[in-house]
Design goal:
The chain is mainly α. It has 25 helices and 5 strands. The two termini are 26 Å apart.
Length: 599
């Protein structure tokens, strides 16, 4: 079986493998000074309340003061959450992230008057704001939401409840990342391997079925022991989303979440409909897995192991770095130059350590490096994760360096496109680079699994998310038994008759998915990957105009509505064509896999 890096205390990991947060603040004392400065600037910005009727110039001045507070607040918050996430057991950083959360709530509360006051301005002032040279798009976006914004008192009250509303997510994070412990796995030679969030995926890829089965059941045994607690936390999360949608006069939580980026509901509905139409392709792939693995019954822990036995490709972190630069060459010299900074300037926290938050992400603010958190285990998945998160970070870097702060953050709807474009470019590179049959089978399987995990699975999550919110709206209690049953049935629908149904352990999967707490985020993985499939084809075509269009998308930030930004990049996300194109690629590569396996 592959070597799994055992969890170490953070102090045992060389600093060269850790991110350098001193580029944000040299010391924790400097962080406290900046925190206090935010509070001081907040008073200045708050003084504008009640003065916006004086005219558009006063509104612009108020917005500039508010953006100053927001910009520094983000820097303060990012430092606290990165410090906390590198070891969630450190009391000082638990306190710091709590202080940062309180700060963010206070800022939100005390500045919540701004949007309602803008929306109450005379029509002539509003018209001037829509055409403002610096802030025109910002005000257009705001003024278009007029019917969904409460009066200043109402918005202030909701803002003050920010920490209350985030309680479910924070409780889940602590329970999931810090308190839950998993039993070790024992290999055939008697070696005990500690199971963690970081090693779980590696263990599910193991060619030894008993190892996969142990890891799967050991992890879910922990979730089974707290299933009622997890259901209560999830219920609170869903109720929060539904409550906020209701008080802001939206039809439902999905409409509320999608409105922030002007995304038509048809984008979500088209995704679910198109993916459901394509489920026979997933059923065909799952049945192929069962056939090749030669098992009487295929279980969820059999869905990730390589079809050629032990993974024929593994990468150390340094090897992965070299592959990353080779694969992403089609993006051009400037992209590679900026990419090198991530490694040279220690944007990346590489290895898992005790207490480190699970998974991987890219995070930063307008004034910081876009940092990357990994939990590296030398797998092909880790290479893809590296390329994925660097896609986020490069998107952030290009947005921050080409847009003013007001438009520096790209919309959530665009967040998963750059990252998965990198993944698709990497797949093309690897398939062209390696000609060995077993490696080709492995890479084709990896691509098919990526579509399975990012389009099919995330659309399944999106459907389940909608189901939970609709059930709560109808008065259904989101108990563990209800959620388990609904999830199990949906899982069977997606994976088809080849997946065994006598072991219901997978019914608990909903309880370990952090993205359900992100308010309709998961569907964007599926739309993002589908768009990325098209963008990767354009970038690797060799057409410099298509590369330039892609880089312009990275530079756009939130300076336009995301649907329009993507149309300029070459993808119309209001149609089903880009999703069907990805399904066609899936079908083609599935056929290639079958041909190789038959040889």
């Amino acid at each position: 079986m592959p070597t799994i890096k055992e969890i170490q205390p953070r102090q045992n990991i060389e600093s060269s493998w850790q991110w350098d947060l001193t580029t944000i603040f040299k010391t924790d004392e400097d962080w406290q000074v900046a925190h206090d400065a935010v509070m001081a600037d907040l008073k200045v910005a708050s003084a504008y309340q009640g003065t916006l009727h004086q005219g558009s110039a006063q509104v612009r001045s108020a917005l500039a003061a508010i953006l100053k507070v927001s910009q520094m607040m983000e820097r303060v918050y990012v430092y606290a959450h990165l410090k906390h996430d590198q070891d969630t057991s450190v009391p000082e950083y638990i306190q710091m992230v709590g202080q940062a959360s309180t700060m963010a709530t206070k800022v939100s509360s005390e500045l919540s008057w701004f949007e309602p006051e803008v929306l109450q301005l005379a029509s002539e002032i509003a018209a001037e704001l829509r055409t403002d040279e610096a802030y025109g798009h910002y005000f257009t976006n705001l003024l278009d939401k007029k019917e969904h914004v409460l009066n200043p008192e109402g918005e202030a009250l909701l803002a003050q409840a920010g920490e209350v509303f985030s309680a479910s997510e924070r409780t889940f994070d602590f329970l999931n990342d810090t308190d839950l412990k998993f039993a070790s796995v024992t290999t055939k030679n008697g070696k005990a391997i500690k199971v963690s969030h970081g090693s779980f995926g590696i263990l599910l890829e193991d060619s030894d079925r008993t190892v996969r089965e142990q890891a799967f059941h050991n992890v879910y045994a922990a979730y089974r022991s707290v299933e009622n607690t997890m259901a209560a936390i999830m219920s609170g999360n869903v109720k929060q989303h539904n409550f906020e949608a209701k008080v802001h006069h939206y039809e439902d939580a999905r409409a509320h979440a999608m409105a922030s980026d002007h995304i038509p509901s048809a984008v979500y509905e088209t995704l679910v409909d198109t993916v459901n139409e394509s489920l026979p392709l997933l059923h065909e792939y799952v049945a192929l897995r069962k056939e090749i693995l030669g098992v009487d019954a295929l279980y969820p822990y059999d869905l990730y192991t390589p079809l050629v036995g032990e993974a024929p490709l593994r990468f150390t972190y340094e090897e992965a770095k070299a592959v990353t630069f080779e694969a992403l060459k089609p993006l051009g010299e400037d992209y590679l130059t900026q990419l090198a900074r991530a490694f040279d300037e220690r944007w990346i926290d590489v290895y898992e350590n005790e207490g480190k938050t699970s998974g991987a992400y890219s995070s930063g603010s307008y004034d910081t490096n876009p940092f990357v958190l990994l939990n590296w285990q030398d797998s092909l998945d880790d290479l893809y994760t590296l390329v994925h998160e660097l896609g986020h970070s490069m998107h952030s870097h290009y947005s921050h360096t080409n847009q003013p702060y007001v438009y520096g953050d790209y919309p959530i709807f665009l967040a998963e496109i750059a990252s998965t474009t990198n993944e698709n470019i990497l797949t093309t590179y690897l398939l062209n680079h390696y000609t060995d049959k077993d490696i080709q089978i492995y890479l084709l399987t990896h691509y098919l699994d990526a579509v399975k995990g990012t389009i099919f699975r995330q659309t399944q999550f999106a459907e389940f998310e909608q189901l939970m919110h609709e059930a709560d709206q109808k008065g259904q209690v989101l108990s563990a038994s209800y959620l388990n049953e609904q999830y199990f049935q949906m899982n069977q629908k997606y994976y088809g008759p080849a997946l065994a149904s006598d072991d219901r352990t997978i019914e608990l999967e909903w309880s370990r998915i952090p993205h359900f707490y992100y308010d309709y985020y998961v569907y964007q993985y599926a739309t993002g990957f589908s768009a990325a499939n098209t963008l990767a084809e354009r970038v690797t075509s060799g057409d410099p105009d298509k590369v330039a269009a892609y880089l312009n998308y990275l530079k756009s930030g939130s300076s336009d509505f995301p649907i329009d930004t993507m149309k300029r990049a070459g993808v119309d996300m209001t149609s089903a064509d880009y999703i069907k194109r990805t399904m066609k690629t899936f079908q083609t590569r599935l056929a290639q896999l079958k041909e190789l396996l038959a040889q």
